[in-house]
Design goal:
- The chain is of the alpha+beta class.
- It folds into 7 domains: 2-69, Roll (Ubiquitin-like (UB roll)), CATH 3.10.20; 155-236, membrane protein fhac (Ubiquitin-like (UB roll), Roll); 240-312, Ubiquitin-like (UB roll), CATH 3.10.20; 319-402, membrane protein fhac (Ubiquitin-like (UB roll)), CATH 3.10.20.310; 408-483, membrane protein fhac (Ubiquitin-like (UB roll)), CATH 3.10.20; 489-561, Ubiquitin-like (UB roll), CATH 3.10.20.310; 569-724 and 734-765 and 772-966, Beta Barrel (Porin).
- Helix content is 18%, strand content 39%.
- It has 18 helices and 41 strands.
- The strands form 9 sheets. It has a 16-stranded antiparallel β-sheet. Strands 7, 8, 9 and 10 form a 4-stranded mixed β-sheet that branches. Strands 11, 12, 13 and 14 form a 4-stranded mixed β-sheet that branches.
- Strand 2 and strand 3 (60-69) form a beta hairpin.
- The longest helix is centred in the N-terminal third of the chain and has 17 residues, at 191-207.
- The protein starts with a strand and ends with a strand.
- Mean pLDDT is 90; it is low at 578-583.
Length: 970
């Protein structure tokens, strides 16, 4: 017997074809075997129809399997001039054609109907949809594109109101938002606008306490001639619902918060009972631990439904102490971390945090902690002491723990692991010999073993376990039984929907390759990394023919490329202690100023189809004008975590009051992620820096004013082990930055600069309090200074260290720390200059900050006590821990500030307000006049010939500083 196929090229992989075929060439003809072959071929899911033909041939018979292959859904997209809503993604989803599922031609009609319905819900009643299907023989895919001509969008018109609205028609129409106010033009129909209109009506009724109001759209009549849609609304206003508390006072705000009838907009017994529980918890949080809340029967009279809660508050208590006794295995701190109950604090939880339900929950949490560590028979109870230590209302709670014996695993036997050696999962298991025995550990082992199998291509692997007592008391022997099932492999990876992106970019992010075991985690990891490129709007992944029993499967990725251009416009303002927006020497220390800000960003993603990003940025304000062009090449040379950035930048800013700086720069930067927390960065920069709007005559020396070209090589190392970079509670953060400017790189100034930072975070008090500290140290070492300049002078002003402000040392306003202009005496060939007192920056920096962060009010408001110490110094050798200023020309000492801050938690990070008091701020001699007046003052003349305004005046940096910003200080 000879076995043939028609067509000769079968859709199954040869390995699966041989596995499914029960009829073999050379075997005698067996009709039962032919039947089994047909069944097994059908079971692969690859065939729509199978027929068998037989014909005699020389020396035997030919059995021919005539097959019709099955097709599967590939890319589903939309094409046409589509103006959202709906967008292309919504259109694709509405088709209900699932990637990798068997393709049914009849499903196209249903998909068209769904799209038509989606368009009509968005006011596009004249839309025309035409499906275009294309077969992709490789992988048996059918790609479907719906060609859409949306037409014009219809507008609403006056709805028909039916039922019992009990509100004027105009009030209901205004609540929908379908018509513009004042001008009364009807808006265009969209699905979201229709839904929001219904919610707007319900909200209107809710404000009038008609919580049972019901609003339904029965139909939307379309007038094609006028392109208008007339909704018909069935409205039943229902009675007004009055919810009140008796025997106790509850504010309307609290009632709306805790009684879910307001949120659900309906009245039923379950919601009423839930409201009673919530109100009980509300009063318990205020110290009324014996409160009793009972709902009374509803009363309907004169179009009003009255719901009453009878509240017996009882005496007010204060939870002053929470004790734990009987614990031997776990210390009290470990147990308290899992508890809700909290004793009263000075500011937070004035009466403690307590509720009967949470007390029971704490008992359960403690018991679960012990059970997960082998204490199967643990019992946790709690008792209270009222009028604790004789003080009426005070209460103490003691949790009693009867640990019982701890159970252990004597022996673990794993049965059925044949294709994966048990040694590969042994180290992952929590129930090895000698470990505590618990159901939690077994569940963790089950997850670890099955995850390993699933990642190796065994989707049908199963796990069972059994236990039996061993010879020793409270010891067991465990047996894990694994049923592996068939291993599946990747037949090929099929990419759909890509038009502009280089295939190599996608392949670089794939963790799976043909022939690899089929791993779901590798599939989803690739999906995530493709999303992370920022190039794709949608990345769907699926296994083709998921229910077929073939062992070689196609892995599909359906990709929608994102829009290539992004435009962002921003408008904002800054109100803070900032420098003047024009040269002025009358106030060396900052004054409150206002600076409007405007920004423009234009980005082009996926340059040349390689995932590169080009961005043009612009910033304009009173104190800064900046423009830059960035070109980013992620995953350079296909190395994960390696990014190359090329930047051209022009920046003009006045954020340092001494001068305005101009910077024109070009740089090339290579960033390499060494490990998850550690990133190494190399940067080569060419920069032209200059200063203008100088307010200090000392700086009018030509060598200091002339533009300087800098060639600089930089290395930056950062290590971030914080649990939350926006609001860290534990971990550490380290950075080290080294810059070298030298003539070898074409620089006109030569110096080495290092800036180091170390921050640590230590939680305590059950993780509620955090002790945070940060130390910053910086040094600039100039060398090969040009003729006529000292080493210190050779460092350009914009390259020096400046400090002070919310994120450095809060004893100073922004950039106000460190050396100041003290004037110069007359010297050989150099006239004397008057002191102005403006900051000059320095070549060394040392700052240490310490913060105690603690809960203040509720869950979202945090308090901070802080102490900052440090300064900017002239040179490295001038760094001093001295706390006193020797004279008005001495700035090389350590300035200290203490303060209090408040943090309010938001989704983008904590909003921060800090009030700092500088203990030893510096004094200085400065000039109190205009720039023009300063230029008239020649200190080389006799004093009696100088105008009165030429006399320097002693000034001081203020003791009190105020800061408002977003994010923690460090």
């Amino acid at each position: 017997m000879e076995v043939q196929y028609s067509p000769a090229q079968q859709p199954l992989d040869p390995v699966d074809l041989a596995r499914a075929q029960a009829v073999k060439t050379g075997d005698p003809l067996d009709l039962d075997a032919v039947g089994r072959a047909i069944d097994q071929l059908y079971a692969t899911g690859r065939y729509e129809d199978i027929q068998v033909e037989a014909e005699p041939a020389e020396g035997g018979i030919i059995v021919r399997f005539v097959t019709v292959e099955r097709w599967f859904v590939g890319h589903v997209g939309a094409q046409g001039k589509i103006s959202a809503p709906p967008n292309r993604g919504q259109i694709s989803v509405s088709t209900e054609l699932n990637l990798g599922a068997p393709y049914d031609p009849n499903s196209l009609k249903a998909a068209e109907d769904n799209i038509v319905r989606l368009f009509r819900e968005n006011g596009l009643y004249e839309a025309a949809i035409r499906p275009d299907t294309r077969k992709d023989p490789h992988g048996q895919q059918i790609n479907v594109t719906f060609v859409v001509t949306p037409g014009k969008r219809a507008k609403y018109e006056m709805p028909i109101l039916q039922g019992d609205p009990k509100l004027p028609d105009q009030t209901i129409v205004a609540a929908t938002g379908w018509r513009m106010r004042f001008i009364h033009w009807w808006r265009e129909v969209t699905q979201a606008r229709t839904r929001n209109g219904i919610n707007g009506i319900l909200s209107k009724y809710q404000k009038k306490d008609r919580l049972e109001a019901d609003v339904q759209i029965s139909k939307m009549d379309y007038d094609a001639a006028r392109r208008r849609v007339k909704p018909t609304l069935n409205i039943n206003a229902g009675p007004t619902v009055k919810i009140r508390a008796i025997e106790a006072k509850v504010s309307g705000r609290a009632m709306r918060k805790y009684v879910p009838i307001y949120q659900e907009r309906r009245v039923d017994n379950d919601l009423i009972v839930e409201g009673a529980r919530n109100l009980a918890n509300y009063f318990e949080a205020q110290g009324y631990y014996d409160v009793d809340v009972k709902p009374r029967p509803n009363q309907l009279k004169d179009d009003q439904l009255l719901i009453e809660y009878a509240i017996a508050k009882g005496e007010r208590h204060k939870l002053v102490e929470v004790n734990i006794e009987g614990n031997k295995y776990f210390d009290a701190e470990t147990i308290r971390e899992r508890m809700f109950l909290e004793p009263a604090g000075f500011i937070r939880f004035r009466h403690g945090r307590y509720s009967r339900s949470m007390r029971a929950k704490d008992e359960e949490n403690i018991a679960n902690l012990y059970k997960s560590n082998g204490f199967r028979d643990v019992k946790v109870t709690s008792t209270t002491i009222d009028d604790y230590k004789g003080k009426k209302g005070d209460m103490s709670i003691t949790f009693h723990i009867d640990e019982g014996p701890q159970w252990f695993v004597d022996n673990l036997e794993i049965e059925g692991m044949k294709q994966i050696p048990p040694s590969e999962v042994q180290y992952l298991l929590a129930s090895n010999a000698g470990q505590p025995y618990s159901a939690v550990n077994i569940a963790a082992d089950r997850t670890a073993i099955l995850t390993t199998y699933f990642n190796r291509g065994f989707p049908s692997a199963t796990f069972e376990y059994s236990e039996q007592a061993s010879g020793a008391p409270h010891h067991v022997n465990l047996k894990y039984k694994i049923t592996e099932g068939d291993q599946q492999f990747v037949r090929d990876i099929l990419i759909n929907g890509v038009r502009r992106t280089s295939p190599q970019l996608i392949q670089n992010h794939m963790e799976l390759h043909p022939g690899d075991p089929l791993s779901l985690s590798a599939m989803t990891n690739a999906q995530k990394t493709l999303y992370d490129t920022g190039v794709f709007a949608k990345v769907d992944t699926a296994i083709q023919n998921p229910d077929g029993n073939e062992t070689r499967k196609y892995v599909l990725y359906d990709i929608v490329e994102a829009a290539r251009y992004t435009l962002n416009l921003g408008v904002g303002a800054e109100i803070a202690q900032i420098g003047p927006t024009a040269p002025n020497v009358s106030t060396p220390t900052p004054s409150t100023g206002f600076s409007p800000r405007f920004s423009l960003d234009i980005s082009r993603i996926n340059m040349f189809g390689r995932g590169h990003l080009a961005t043009v940025r612009g910033r304009v304000s009173n104190i800064e004008q900046m423009g830059s062009v960035d070109y980013v090449m992620p995953r350079f040379r296909d190395v994960s975590g390696r990014n190359v950035t090329i930047t051209a930048l022009y920046d003009f800013r006045r954020d340092i009051r001494t001068f305005a700086s101009k910077r024109a720069e070009a740089s090339v930067q290579v960033a390499q992620q060494v490990s998850k927390p550690t990133t190494l960065l190399f940067r080569l920069t060419y920069r032209r820096v200059s200063i203008s709007e100088v307010v200090i005559p000392t700086l009018l020396v030509p060598q200091l004013l002339q533009p300087i070209r800098l060639g600089m090589f930089s290395i930056n190392l950062s290590q971030d082990r914080r649990d939350n970079s926006a609001d860290a509670h534990r971990g550490m953060f380290n950075t080290a930055n080294f810059d070298v400017a030298t003539k070898v790189l074409g620089s006109q100034r030569s110096f080495v600069r290092g800036l180091f930072r170390n921050a640590t975070y230590h939680p305590f008090q059950h993780g509620q309090w955090v002790l945070a500290r940060q130390t910053q140290f910086g040094v600039i070492l100039p060398f090969a200074a040009p003729a006529g300049l000292t080493n210190a002078q050779s460092v350009p002003l914009p390259e020096r260290f400046f400090a002070g402000g919310a994120n450095s040392i809060r004893a100073f306003a922004w950039n106000q720390a460190g050396p100041r202009d003290i004037g110069t005496p007359a010297g050989p060939g150099a006239p004397a200059t008057l002191p102005t007192g403006f900051p000059l920056g320095g070549n060394a920096l040392l700052i240490n900050s310490l913060e105690l962060r603690f809960p203040l009010i509720g869950e979202n408001i945090q308090g901070v006590l802080f102490e900052d110490a440090g300064n900017v110094y002239d040179t490295l050798k001038d760094i001093s821990f001295r706390a006193r200023q020797r004279n008005l020309q001495d700035f090389n000492y350590m300035v200290h500030a203490v303060g209090f801050g408040v943090r309010y938690r938001t989704p983008i990070g904590p909003v921060r307000v800090d009030l700092a008091y500088a203990i030893n701020p510096p004094g200085f001699v400065g000039f109190k006049g205009t720039t023009q007046e300063l230029l008239q003052c020649n200190p080389n003349l006799p004093p009696n010939q100088l105008p009165s305004f030429c006399t320097p005046v002693q000034q001081n940096v203020g003791h009190v500083q105020f800061f408002f910003s977003i994010g923690q200080a460090f």
